[in-house]
Amino acid sequence: MDEIVERERTKPNTPATKPGSPTKRRSGLGRALLALVVLGAIGGGWYWWAHREPSTAGRAGNANRFAQGAPQPVGFATIDKGDIRIILNELGTVTSLDTVTVYTQISGQLQEIGFKEGQEVHKGDFLAQIDPRPYQAALEQAEGTLAKDQGLLAQAQTDLKRYQTLGRQDSIAQQQLDDQKYLVQQYAGQVKADQGAVDTAKVNLSYCRIVSPIDGLVGLRQVDEGNYIQASGTTGIAVITQLHPISVLFSVTEDNLPDILSEVRKGQVLDAEAYDRTNTRHLESGHLATLDNVIDTTTGTLKLRALFDNPDEMLIPNQFVNVRLLVNTLKDTVRVPVSAVQRGEPGTFVYVVNANDTVSVRTIKVGPIDGQYEAVTSGLQPGDRVVTEGTDRLRDGSKVTLPQAEQGTKQGAATERTGVHPEQTKGAKAGSAAGK
Protein backbone atom coordinates (compact mmCIF):
# COMPACT_ATOMS: atom_id res chain seq x y z
CA MET A 1 0.00 0.00 0.00
CA ASP A 2 2.81 2.38 0.90
CA GLU A 3 4.48 1.71 -2.41
CA ILE A 4 1.35 2.74 -4.31
CA VAL A 5 1.13 6.09 -2.44
CA GLU A 6 4.79 6.77 -3.00
CA ARG A 7 4.45 6.17 -6.71
CA GLU A 8 1.54 8.60 -6.85
CA ARG A 9 3.59 11.30 -5.15
CA THR A 10 6.56 10.88 -7.48
CA LYS A 11 4.40 10.87 -10.66
CA PRO A 12 5.31 13.89 -12.85
CA ASN A 13 2.65 16.68 -13.35
CA THR A 14 1.04 16.65 -16.74
CA PRO A 15 -0.43 19.98 -18.11
CA ALA A 16 -4.25 20.14 -18.32
CA THR A 17 -4.01 21.76 -21.72
CA LYS A 18 -1.47 21.89 -24.31
CA PRO A 19 0.29 25.10 -25.26
CA GLY A 20 -1.43 26.87 -28.11
CA SER A 21 -4.82 25.30 -27.35
CA PRO A 22 -8.08 27.29 -28.12
CA THR A 23 -8.86 27.85 -24.42
CA LYS A 24 -5.58 29.64 -23.79
CA ARG A 25 -6.09 31.88 -26.81
CA ARG A 26 -9.55 33.01 -25.56
CA SER A 27 -8.13 33.94 -22.11
CA GLY A 28 -5.48 36.23 -23.63
CA LEU A 29 -8.05 37.98 -25.84
CA GLY A 30 -10.25 38.82 -22.81
CA ARG A 31 -7.39 40.41 -20.91
CA ALA A 32 -6.57 42.59 -23.91
CA LEU A 33 -10.18 43.80 -24.24
CA LEU A 34 -10.33 44.64 -20.51
CA ALA A 35 -7.17 46.71 -20.80
CA LEU A 36 -8.61 48.63 -23.74
CA VAL A 37 -11.81 49.42 -21.81
CA VAL A 38 -9.86 50.73 -18.82
CA LEU A 39 -7.65 52.91 -21.02
CA GLY A 40 -10.70 54.28 -22.84
CA ALA A 41 -12.44 55.19 -19.54
CA ILE A 42 -9.33 57.01 -18.29
CA GLY A 43 -9.00 58.93 -21.52
CA GLY A 44 -12.69 59.94 -21.57
CA GLY A 45 -12.54 61.14 -17.96
CA TRP A 46 -9.46 63.25 -18.66
CA TYR A 47 -11.10 64.78 -21.72
CA TRP A 48 -14.28 65.68 -19.76
CA TRP A 49 -12.26 67.24 -16.93
CA ALA A 50 -10.05 69.20 -19.28
CA HIS A 51 -13.04 70.72 -21.15
CA ARG A 52 -15.24 71.27 -18.03
CA GLU A 53 -12.78 73.45 -16.10
CA PRO A 54 -12.59 76.28 -18.67
CA SER A 55 -16.44 76.26 -18.98
CA THR A 56 -16.90 76.69 -15.22
CA ALA A 57 -14.35 79.46 -15.09
CA GLY A 58 -16.02 81.17 -18.03
CA ARG A 59 -19.40 81.14 -16.33
CA ALA A 60 -17.92 82.58 -13.15
CA GLY A 61 -16.24 85.30 -15.18
CA ASN A 62 -19.49 86.14 -16.94
CA ALA A 63 -21.28 86.35 -13.59
CA ASN A 64 -18.61 88.68 -12.24
CA ARG A 65 -18.75 90.83 -15.33
CA PHE A 66 -22.57 90.98 -15.06
CA ALA A 67 -22.41 91.92 -11.40
CA GLN A 68 -19.81 94.59 -12.05
CA GLY A 69 -21.01 96.27 -15.21
CA ALA A 70 -24.40 95.01 -16.44
CA PRO A 71 -27.16 97.67 -16.07
CA GLN A 72 -29.89 96.71 -13.60
CA PRO A 73 -33.55 97.43 -14.49
CA VAL A 74 -35.16 99.46 -11.71
CA GLY A 75 -38.28 101.47 -11.01
CA PHE A 76 -37.97 105.10 -9.99
CA ALA A 77 -39.96 108.13 -8.86
CA THR A 78 -39.37 111.86 -9.15
CA ILE A 79 -39.30 113.86 -5.94
CA ASP A 80 -42.03 116.51 -5.67
CA LYS A 81 -43.81 118.64 -3.09
CA GLY A 82 -47.19 117.96 -1.52
CA ASP A 83 -49.21 117.83 1.67
CA ILE A 84 -48.22 115.40 4.41
CA ARG A 85 -50.84 114.71 7.06
CA ILE A 86 -49.68 113.95 10.60
CA ILE A 87 -51.99 111.13 11.63
CA LEU A 88 -52.01 109.13 14.86
CA ASN A 89 -53.27 105.55 14.58
CA GLU A 90 -54.61 104.28 17.90
CA LEU A 91 -56.78 101.43 19.13
CA GLY A 92 -60.05 102.57 20.70
CA THR A 93 -63.25 101.27 22.25
CA VAL A 94 -66.72 102.45 21.28
CA THR A 95 -68.56 103.84 24.30
CA SER A 96 -72.14 105.08 24.51
CA LEU A 97 -72.71 108.54 25.95
CA ASP A 98 -75.81 107.33 27.78
CA THR A 99 -76.72 103.76 28.74
CA VAL A 100 -79.76 103.01 30.93
CA THR A 101 -80.84 99.72 32.45
CA VAL A 102 -84.61 99.90 32.91
CA TYR A 103 -85.63 98.57 36.36
CA THR A 104 -89.05 98.54 37.93
CA GLN A 105 -89.51 100.94 40.86
CA ILE A 106 -92.44 99.00 42.31
CA SER A 107 -93.31 95.35 42.73
CA GLY A 108 -96.07 93.68 40.80
CA GLN A 109 -97.03 91.44 37.91
CA LEU A 110 -95.68 92.41 34.48
CA GLN A 111 -98.79 92.64 32.33
CA GLU A 112 -97.48 93.97 29.01
CA ILE A 113 -94.25 94.52 27.07
CA GLY A 114 -94.50 97.51 24.76
CA PHE A 115 -91.26 97.22 22.77
CA LYS A 116 -89.52 94.87 20.39
CA GLU A 117 -85.94 93.78 20.81
CA GLY A 118 -83.62 96.02 18.83
CA GLN A 119 -86.25 98.74 18.46
CA GLU A 120 -85.23 102.39 18.44
CA VAL A 121 -87.20 104.31 21.04
CA HIS A 122 -87.50 107.94 22.08
CA LYS A 123 -87.81 109.56 25.45
CA GLY A 124 -91.30 108.95 26.87
CA ASP A 125 -92.15 105.93 24.68
CA PHE A 126 -94.11 103.15 26.38
CA LEU A 127 -92.01 100.15 27.40
CA ALA A 128 -93.90 97.99 29.94
CA GLN A 129 -97.03 97.87 32.11
CA ILE A 130 -97.24 96.53 35.69
CA ASP A 131 -100.60 95.56 37.24
CA PRO A 132 -101.91 98.93 38.60
CA ARG A 133 -104.90 97.67 40.63
CA PRO A 134 -103.18 97.36 44.04
CA TYR A 135 -101.74 100.86 43.69
CA GLN A 136 -105.03 102.28 42.49
CA ALA A 137 -106.71 100.89 45.60
CA ALA A 138 -103.97 102.33 47.82
CA LEU A 139 -104.51 105.72 46.22
CA GLU A 140 -108.23 105.62 46.88
CA GLN A 141 -107.63 104.63 50.49
CA ALA A 142 -105.20 107.50 50.98
CA GLU A 143 -107.65 109.92 49.39
CA GLY A 144 -110.40 108.70 51.76
CA THR A 145 -108.25 109.25 54.82
CA LEU A 146 -107.36 112.70 53.54
CA ALA A 147 -111.03 113.60 53.06
CA LYS A 148 -111.88 112.46 56.61
CA ASP A 149 -109.08 114.45 58.20
CA GLN A 150 -109.91 117.49 56.12
CA GLY A 151 -113.46 117.37 57.54
CA LEU A 152 -112.18 117.17 61.08
CA LEU A 153 -109.88 120.10 60.43
CA ALA A 154 -112.73 122.17 59.02
CA GLN A 155 -114.87 121.39 62.06
CA ALA A 156 -112.07 122.29 64.46
CA GLN A 157 -111.43 125.56 62.61
CA THR A 158 -115.14 126.46 62.87
CA ASP A 159 -115.15 125.73 66.60
CA LEU A 160 -112.05 127.84 67.02
CA LYS A 161 -113.74 130.84 65.44
CA ARG A 162 -116.69 130.39 67.77
CA TYR A 163 -114.46 130.08 70.80
CA GLN A 164 -112.52 133.17 69.83
CA THR A 165 -115.79 135.18 69.77
CA LEU A 166 -116.80 133.83 73.14
CA GLY A 167 -113.36 134.49 74.50
CA ARG A 168 -113.54 138.17 73.58
CA GLN A 169 -116.83 138.25 75.53
CA ASP A 170 -115.23 136.47 78.49
CA SER A 171 -117.86 133.73 78.11
CA ILE A 172 -115.38 130.79 78.08
CA ALA A 173 -112.17 130.03 79.86
CA GLN A 174 -108.90 130.89 78.17
CA GLN A 175 -107.75 127.29 78.54
CA GLN A 176 -110.61 126.02 76.39
CA LEU A 177 -109.71 128.53 73.68
CA ASP A 178 -106.06 127.48 73.73
CA ASP A 179 -106.96 123.77 73.54
CA GLN A 180 -109.05 124.44 70.46
CA LYS A 181 -106.14 126.22 68.78
CA TYR A 182 -103.87 123.24 69.36
CA LEU A 183 -106.54 120.84 68.09
CA VAL A 184 -106.73 122.76 64.81
CA GLN A 185 -102.96 122.49 64.44
CA GLN A 186 -103.12 118.72 65.02
CA TYR A 187 -105.76 118.28 62.35
CA ALA A 188 -103.79 120.47 59.94
CA GLY A 189 -100.72 118.26 60.41
CA GLN A 190 -102.78 115.14 59.88
CA VAL A 191 -104.22 116.53 56.66
CA LYS A 192 -100.72 117.31 55.41
CA ALA A 193 -99.57 113.74 56.17
CA ASP A 194 -102.63 112.40 54.38
CA GLN A 195 -101.82 114.55 51.37
CA GLY A 196 -98.32 113.06 51.31
CA ALA A 197 -99.78 109.55 51.34
CA VAL A 198 -102.00 110.48 48.42
CA ASP A 199 -99.04 111.85 46.45
CA THR A 200 -97.03 108.69 47.18
CA ALA A 201 -99.86 106.51 45.96
CA LYS A 202 -100.10 108.57 42.77
CA VAL A 203 -96.35 108.21 42.14
CA ASN A 204 -96.50 104.44 42.68
CA LEU A 205 -99.44 104.26 40.33
CA SER A 206 -97.47 106.18 37.67
CA TYR A 207 -94.61 103.70 38.07
CA CYS A 208 -96.90 100.97 36.81
CA ARG A 209 -96.49 102.42 33.34
CA ILE A 210 -92.77 102.29 32.43
CA VAL A 211 -91.54 104.65 29.70
CA SER A 212 -88.15 105.21 28.09
CA PRO A 213 -86.00 107.78 29.91
CA ILE A 214 -83.74 108.49 26.87
CA ASP A 215 -83.52 108.16 23.09
CA GLY A 216 -81.72 105.01 22.10
CA LEU A 217 -81.77 101.43 20.99
CA VAL A 218 -83.45 98.75 23.11
CA GLY A 219 -81.45 95.59 23.66
CA LEU A 220 -82.67 92.07 24.37
CA ARG A 221 -85.60 91.61 26.75
CA GLN A 222 -84.53 90.45 30.21
CA VAL A 223 -87.95 89.40 31.58
CA ASP A 224 -91.15 88.08 30.02
CA GLU A 225 -94.78 89.04 30.49
CA GLY A 226 -96.61 87.44 33.40
CA ASN A 227 -93.62 87.39 35.75
CA TYR A 228 -93.81 89.01 39.17
CA ILE A 229 -91.04 91.57 39.34
CA GLN A 230 -89.77 93.34 42.43
CA ALA A 231 -88.26 96.73 43.01
CA SER A 232 -85.35 95.07 44.81
CA GLY A 233 -84.59 92.79 41.86
CA THR A 234 -81.16 92.88 40.19
CA THR A 235 -82.42 91.98 36.71
CA GLY A 236 -83.77 94.85 34.67
CA ILE A 237 -86.44 94.73 32.02
CA ALA A 238 -84.17 95.94 29.20
CA VAL A 239 -81.09 98.05 28.45
CA ILE A 240 -81.36 101.20 26.32
CA THR A 241 -78.20 102.52 24.69
CA GLN A 242 -77.76 105.86 22.99
CA LEU A 243 -76.21 105.49 19.54
CA HIS A 244 -76.64 109.01 18.12
CA PRO A 245 -74.11 110.44 18.75
CA ILE A 246 -71.65 107.88 20.05
CA SER A 247 -68.09 108.19 21.30
CA VAL A 248 -64.82 106.30 21.01
CA LEU A 249 -62.30 106.28 23.85
CA PHE A 250 -58.65 105.86 22.87
CA SER A 251 -55.25 106.67 24.34
CA VAL A 252 -52.22 108.51 22.97
CA THR A 253 -48.70 108.58 24.35
CA GLU A 254 -47.60 111.64 26.29
CA ASP A 255 -44.97 112.32 23.59
CA ASN A 256 -47.77 113.22 21.16
CA LEU A 257 -49.63 115.51 23.58
CA PRO A 258 -47.76 118.76 22.75
CA ASP A 259 -48.86 118.64 19.10
CA ILE A 260 -52.46 117.83 20.04
CA LEU A 261 -52.69 120.45 22.78
CA SER A 262 -51.17 123.07 20.50
CA GLU A 263 -53.92 122.59 17.92
CA VAL A 264 -56.74 122.30 20.48
CA ARG A 265 -55.72 125.53 22.24
CA LYS A 266 -55.80 127.30 18.89
CA GLY A 267 -59.46 126.32 18.61
CA GLN A 268 -58.87 123.78 15.86
CA VAL A 269 -61.31 120.88 15.53
CA LEU A 270 -59.26 117.72 14.93
CA ASP A 271 -60.84 115.24 12.55
CA ALA A 272 -61.06 111.58 13.57
CA GLU A 273 -61.78 108.53 11.43
CA ALA A 274 -62.94 105.15 12.76
CA TYR A 275 -61.85 101.96 10.98
CA ASP A 276 -62.63 98.33 11.71
CA ARG A 277 -60.41 95.90 13.61
CA THR A 278 -58.34 95.10 10.48
CA ASN A 279 -57.82 98.84 9.84
CA THR A 280 -59.07 98.50 6.27
CA ARG A 281 -62.79 99.37 6.28
CA HIS A 282 -63.88 102.92 7.04
CA LEU A 283 -66.78 103.02 9.51
CA GLU A 284 -67.53 106.62 10.54
CA SER A 285 -66.12 110.15 10.50
CA GLY A 286 -66.09 112.39 13.54
CA HIS A 287 -63.99 114.80 15.56
CA LEU A 288 -62.04 115.00 18.80
CA ALA A 289 -64.36 116.05 21.65
CA THR A 290 -62.30 116.18 24.82
CA LEU A 291 -59.15 115.07 26.63
CA ASP A 292 -58.81 113.53 30.06
CA ASN A 293 -57.19 115.57 32.84
CA VAL A 294 -54.63 113.04 34.09
CA ILE A 295 -51.97 110.82 32.48
CA ASP A 296 -51.92 107.14 33.37
CA THR A 297 -48.56 106.64 35.06
CA THR A 298 -48.49 102.89 34.34
CA THR A 299 -48.66 103.35 30.56
CA GLY A 300 -47.66 106.99 30.04
CA THR A 301 -50.80 107.64 27.99
CA LEU A 302 -53.73 110.05 28.10
CA LYS A 303 -57.34 109.14 27.26
CA LEU A 304 -59.17 111.04 24.55
CA ARG A 305 -62.80 110.96 23.45
CA ALA A 306 -63.91 111.36 19.86
CA LEU A 307 -67.55 111.90 18.87
CA PHE A 308 -69.26 110.34 15.84
CA ASP A 309 -72.78 111.04 14.56
CA ASN A 310 -73.08 107.35 13.66
CA PRO A 311 -76.08 107.74 11.28
CA ASP A 312 -75.64 104.24 9.85
CA GLU A 313 -75.10 102.71 13.32
CA MET A 314 -71.81 101.13 12.24
CA LEU A 315 -70.40 101.76 15.72
CA ILE A 316 -71.72 99.57 18.54
CA PRO A 317 -70.77 99.99 22.24
CA ASN A 318 -67.74 97.92 23.35
CA GLN A 319 -66.62 97.51 19.74
CA PHE A 320 -62.87 97.65 19.11
CA VAL A 321 -61.94 100.09 16.34
CA ASN A 322 -58.85 101.81 14.98
CA VAL A 323 -58.92 105.59 15.30
CA ARG A 324 -56.98 107.83 12.94
CA LEU A 325 -56.62 111.29 14.45
CA LEU A 326 -55.50 114.04 12.05
CA VAL A 327 -53.29 116.26 14.21
CA ASN A 328 -51.86 118.60 11.57
CA THR A 329 -51.07 118.92 7.85
CA LEU A 330 -47.64 119.91 6.55
CA LYS A 331 -48.33 122.04 3.49
CA ASP A 332 -46.14 121.99 0.36
CA THR A 333 -43.36 119.87 1.82
CA VAL A 334 -40.78 117.70 0.04
CA ARG A 335 -41.88 114.07 0.11
CA VAL A 336 -40.47 110.72 -1.01
CA PRO A 337 -42.19 107.36 -1.66
CA VAL A 338 -41.91 105.05 1.31
CA SER A 339 -40.65 102.23 -0.95
CA ALA A 340 -37.59 104.31 -1.85
CA VAL A 341 -36.40 104.83 1.72
CA GLN A 342 -33.72 102.38 2.85
CA ARG A 343 -32.22 101.89 6.30
CA GLY A 344 -28.81 100.39 6.87
CA GLU A 345 -25.24 101.18 7.88
CA PRO A 346 -25.25 104.76 6.48
CA GLY A 347 -28.51 105.39 8.33
CA THR A 348 -31.59 106.41 6.39
CA PHE A 349 -30.73 106.71 2.70
CA VAL A 350 -32.02 106.46 -0.87
CA TYR A 351 -30.51 105.52 -4.23
CA VAL A 352 -30.47 108.64 -6.38
CA VAL A 353 -30.43 108.16 -10.17
CA ASN A 354 -27.73 110.32 -11.76
CA ALA A 355 -27.76 111.85 -15.24
CA ASN A 356 -25.47 109.08 -16.58
CA ASP A 357 -27.90 106.34 -15.45
CA THR A 358 -25.86 105.38 -12.42
CA VAL A 359 -27.01 105.45 -8.82
CA SER A 360 -25.42 106.96 -5.75
CA VAL A 361 -26.24 106.52 -2.08
CA ARG A 362 -27.55 109.66 -0.40
CA THR A 363 -28.41 109.91 3.28
CA ILE A 364 -31.60 111.80 4.13
CA LYS A 365 -33.65 112.86 7.14
CA VAL A 366 -37.30 111.93 7.10
CA GLY A 367 -40.40 113.05 8.97
CA PRO A 368 -43.99 111.79 9.32
CA ILE A 369 -45.43 109.12 7.03
CA ASP A 370 -48.72 109.71 5.23
CA GLY A 371 -49.86 106.66 3.29
CA GLN A 372 -47.33 105.96 0.53
CA TYR A 373 -45.28 109.10 1.12
CA GLU A 374 -42.82 110.20 3.78
CA ALA A 375 -41.81 113.78 4.50
CA VAL A 376 -38.17 114.69 3.83
CA THR A 377 -36.54 117.34 6.01
CA SER A 378 -33.12 117.28 4.31
CA GLY A 379 -31.16 115.43 1.61
CA LEU A 380 -33.51 115.65 -1.38
CA GLN A 381 -34.86 118.35 -3.65
CA PRO A 382 -37.83 118.40 -6.04
CA GLY A 383 -36.81 116.90 -9.37
CA ASP A 384 -34.41 114.32 -7.94
CA ARG A 385 -35.00 110.77 -9.13
CA VAL A 386 -34.89 107.95 -6.58
CA VAL A 387 -35.07 104.19 -7.05
CA THR A 388 -38.30 102.59 -5.77
CA GLU A 389 -37.95 99.04 -7.14
CA GLY A 390 -34.93 96.77 -7.45
CA THR A 391 -32.89 98.32 -4.65
CA ASP A 392 -31.74 94.91 -3.40
CA ARG A 393 -29.48 94.53 -6.47
CA LEU A 394 -27.84 97.95 -6.26
CA ARG A 395 -24.78 99.51 -4.69
CA ASP A 396 -23.14 102.88 -4.95
CA GLY A 397 -22.15 103.49 -8.59
CA SER A 398 -24.26 100.71 -10.14
CA LYS A 399 -25.59 101.25 -13.64
CA VAL A 400 -29.36 101.10 -14.10
CA THR A 401 -31.93 101.15 -16.86
CA LEU A 402 -35.16 103.06 -16.41
CA PRO A 403 -38.60 102.07 -17.80
CA GLN A 404 -38.86 105.24 -19.94
CA ALA A 405 -35.37 104.71 -21.41
CA GLU A 406 -36.21 101.14 -22.41
CA GLN A 407 -39.43 102.33 -24.09
CA GLY A 408 -37.52 105.01 -26.03
CA THR A 409 -34.95 102.43 -27.17
CA LYS A 410 -37.69 100.13 -28.46
CA GLN A 411 -39.35 102.95 -30.37
CA GLY A 412 -36.01 103.98 -31.92
CA ALA A 413 -35.30 100.41 -33.04
CA ALA A 414 -38.73 100.17 -34.64
CA THR A 415 -38.15 103.44 -36.52
CA GLU A 416 -34.77 102.25 -37.77
CA ARG A 417 -36.22 98.99 -39.10
CA THR A 418 -39.33 100.39 -40.76
CA GLY A 419 -38.47 104.05 -41.31
CA VAL A 420 -41.77 105.01 -39.66
CA HIS A 421 -42.24 106.06 -36.01
CA PRO A 422 -44.72 103.86 -34.07
CA GLU A 423 -46.89 106.92 -33.30
CA GLN A 424 -47.22 107.55 -37.05
CA THR A 425 -48.31 103.94 -37.52
CA LYS A 426 -50.97 104.40 -34.87
CA GLY A 427 -52.19 107.56 -36.60
CA ALA A 428 -52.35 105.82 -39.97
CA LYS A 429 -54.34 102.93 -38.50
CA ALA A 430 -56.73 105.34 -36.83
CA GLY A 431 -57.24 107.23 -40.12
CA SER A 432 -57.86 104.01 -42.01
CA ALA A 433 -60.44 102.94 -39.45
CA ALA A 434 -62.16 106.33 -39.68
CA GLY A 435 -62.30 106.09 -43.49
CA LYS A 436 -64.04 102.71 -43.24
CATH topology of the largest domain: Elongation Factor Tu (Ef-tu), domain 3
SSE arrangement, N to C: HHEEEEEEEHHEEEEEHEEEEEEEEEEEHH
The percent of residues in helical segments reads 25-40%
What's the β-strand tally?
Answer: 23
Q: Given the structure, what is the number of helices?
A: 7
The CATH first-level class of the largest domain comes to Mainly Beta
Poorly predicted parts: 1-19, 53-67, 405-436
Please list the strands of the largest sheet in the order they lie side by side.
3-12-15-14-13-16
Rg to the nearest angstrom?
52 Å
Q: How would you characterize the largest beta sheet?
A: 6 strands, antiparallel, barrel
What is the 3D shape?
elongated
> Which whole number gives the mean pLDDT?
82
CATH 4th-level superfamily of the largest domain: Efflux pump adaptor protein, beta barrel domain
How much strand content do the residues show? Answer: 25-35%
User: Any idea what the CATH architecture of the largest domain is?
Assistant: Beta Barrel
| Count of domain modules | 4
Distance between the termini: 129 Å
Helix/strand-derived category reads alpha+beta
What does this structure look like?
- The structure is a single chain.
- The chain has 4 domains: 72-83 and 332-405, Beta Barrel (conserved putative lor/sdh protein from methanococcus maripaludis s2 fold); 87-96 and 242-331, Efflux pump adaptor protein, beta barrel domain (Elongation Factor Tu (Ef-tu), domain 3, Beta Barrel); 102-129 and 211-241, Beta Barrel (OB fold (Dihydrolipoamide Acetyltransferase, E2P)), CATH 2.40.50.100; 132-207, Helix Hairpins (Orthogonal Bundle).
- Helix content is 38%, strand content 31%.
- The chain has 7 helices and 23 strands.
- The protein has helices spanning 2-9, 22-69, 133-168, 174-207, 257-265, 403-418, 422-435, and strands at residues 72-73, 75-78, 80-95, 99-102, 108-113, 120-121, 126-130, 209-211, 216-218, 228-229, 238-241, 246-253, 271-275, 282-291, 301-308, 320-337, 342-344, 347-353, 359-363, 365-370, 373-378, 385-389, 400-401.
- Helix 3 (133-168) runs antiparallel to helix 4.
- It is elongated and about 170 Å long.
